[in-house]
């Protein structure tokens, strides 16, 4: 059990002293009650942040003021971080940001949390404190808002996405009907949130071990279209096959690949999506490479694949291959052609994994030296010789390419 961890025991002992009270809160309690691994341990306390810092310092424990304004101090013990947050209650909210006040009221702190399964505490001896009737929901794996669902969503619209994310992670059966209805009614409010919060939450949802069911319910509630209109005429049917393939081939689940499985490979639309949700440059680039990579032909030769790798990079092509492989696997049970194609995709995927981009042996200086005047023509000539070199499967070496360059410059044997 997580509360026998000596570092955690020390932190709890330190804070449950001289009139202070502290309990493990939120995700750590939820996961341990569900028998799932606990990632990080958050602690709630009646002590003010300054008092937490003071006590930590006196005990020689490192205290980092990670979010003093929200009441959070991170204590680091034996290399493990513990986020300690002073009890809070909501003062006011505009649906995007809540103004909070520190307090000493456990009930108020529990009630400002989103879901019943996320609002349990565990005292220093491991006793679970349930102020929102969360234990039965843990037992039945019901994802349920605390209090009135619509009111809780009006306080913070991101809770719509959290509802589906936690359903994807921990829910069983159907989502709570009242919560689902409230999310459907409030879907338009998602557009008021900052893109960063929406994307970060969407990514977590897509990263769940199996987001398939949650995505279906999101689509049904109209929430999926509100966040990702690109999925509308495309669909989420590819998700189960992708999850199966991930398991079968041991691929690390990748939220971006899962996103690619449910949106059309259209560079322009994906560019707009990346802007709208403020994807990182790296994420946007991966989606763009994927969309610009060509479909994998059923009998693609390895040499032809190397040329594609050179032109489109391994990232976009591996997305193409993985999605093609997943769908071929799904069809393959009854279709020998699909099975053969799946085999090809697997080989090409392995090839893409170890591929290193060959260096083109010529550069601009060579073109200038061959007598082309400085200007846009230099790049054009270089690009066309590079294209020829790629078409020839990178076989020509520098000496041969220099001869070819001379031919081109003299107009003896122009490029096609
Ligand atoms: P994990 O970190 O494993 O994804 P978690 O439960 O720790 O799950 P966090 O997003 O880290 O989730 O939030 C910690 C706790 O803070 C939650 O368990 C919940 O009680 C509360 N919380 C977080 N975000 C909100 C929110 N938007 N509205 C209400 N409560 C929230
Ligand atoms: Mg957490």
Structure report:
Residues 22-144 form the Poly A polymerase head domain. Its cofactor is Mg(2+). InterPro entries: Bact_CCA-adding_enz_type3_sf, NT_sf, PolA_pol_head_dom, PolyA_RNA-bd. One of its GO terms (molecular function) is metal ion binding. Residues 179-233 form the tRNA nucleotidyltransferase/poly(A) polymerase RNA and SrmB- binding domain. The chain is of the alpha+beta class and 416 residues long. The chain folds into four domains: 1-140, Beta Polymerase, domain 2; 147-227, cca-adding enzyme, domain 2, CATH 1.10.3090; 234-357, no CATH class; 364-410, no CATH class. It contains 20 helices and nine strands. The chain has helices spanning 6-15, 27-33, 49-58, 106-111, 135-140, 149-155, 158-170, 177-185, 195-206, 212-220, 223-227, 238-249, 255-262, 267-276, 281-292, 302-332, 336-354, 364-369, 376-391, 398-410, and strands at 22-25, 41-45, 62-67, 72-77, 80-86, 88-93, 98-102, 121-122, 128-129. The strands form two sheets. The chain has a seven-stranded mixed beta sheet with strand order 3-4-5-2-1-8-9. Strands 6-7 form a two-stranded antiparallel sheet. A hairpin with a 4-residue loop joins strand 3 (62-67) and strand 4. Helix 9 packs across helix 13 and helix 15 (281-292) packs across helix 16. The radius of gyration is 28 Å and the shape is elongated. The chain starts with 5 loop residues before the first helix and ends in a 6-residue tail after the last helix. The mean pLDDT is 94. The chain binds adenosine-5'-triphosphate and magnesium ion (MG). Magnesium ion binds at residues 27, 40.
């Amino acid at each position: 059990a997580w509360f026998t961890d000596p570092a955690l025991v020390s932190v709890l002992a330190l804070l449950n002293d001289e009139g202070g009270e502290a309990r493990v809160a939120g995700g750590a309690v939820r996961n341990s009650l569900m028998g799932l691994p606990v990632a990080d341990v958050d602690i709630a306390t009646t002590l003010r942040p300054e008092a937490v810092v003071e006590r930590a310092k006196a005990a020689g424990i490192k205290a980092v003021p990670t979010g003093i304004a929200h009441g959070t101090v991170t204590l680091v013990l034996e290399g493990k971080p513990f986020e300690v947050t002073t009890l809070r209650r909501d003062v006011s909210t505009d649906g995007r940001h809540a103004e909070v006040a520190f307090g000493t009221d456990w009930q108020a702190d529990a009630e400002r949390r989103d879901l019943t399964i996320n609002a349990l505490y565990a005292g220093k001896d491991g006793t679970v404190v349930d102020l929102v009737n969360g234990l039965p929901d843990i037992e039945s794996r019901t994802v349920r808002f605390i209090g009135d669902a619509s009111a809780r969503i009006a306080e913070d619209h991101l809770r719509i996405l959290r509802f589906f994310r936690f359903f994807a992670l921990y829910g069983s059966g159907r989502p709570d009907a009242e919560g689902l209805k409230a999310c459907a009614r409030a879907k338009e409010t998602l557009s008021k949130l900052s893109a960063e919060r929406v994307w970060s939450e969407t990514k977590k949802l897509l990263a769940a071990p199996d987001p398939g069911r949650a995505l279906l319910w999101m689509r049904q509630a109209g929430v999926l279209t509100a966040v990702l209109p690109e999925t509308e005429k495309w669909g989420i049917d590819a998700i189960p096959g992708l999850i199966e393939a991930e398991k079968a081939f041991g691929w690390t689940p990748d939220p971006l690949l899962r996103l690619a499985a449910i949106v059309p490979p259209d560079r322009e639309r994906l560019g707009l999506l990346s802007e709208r949700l403020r994807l990182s440059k790296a994420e946007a680039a991966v989606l763009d490479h994927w969309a610009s990579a060509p479909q994998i032909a059923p009998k693609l030769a390895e040499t032809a694949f190397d040329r594609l790798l050179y032109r489109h990079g391994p990232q976009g092509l591996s997305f193409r291959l993985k999605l093609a492989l997943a769908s071929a696997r799904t069809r393959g049970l009854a279709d020998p052609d699909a099975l053969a194609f799946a085999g090809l995709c697997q080989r090409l995927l392995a090839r893409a994994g170890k591929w290193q981009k060959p260096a083109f042996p010529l550069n601009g200086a060579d073109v200038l030296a061959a007598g082309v005047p400085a200007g846009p023509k230099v790049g054009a000539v270089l690009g066309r010789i590079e294209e020829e070199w790629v078409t020839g499967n990178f076989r020509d070496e520098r000496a041969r390419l220099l001869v070819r360059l001379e031919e081109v410059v003299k107009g003896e044997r122009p490029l096609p």
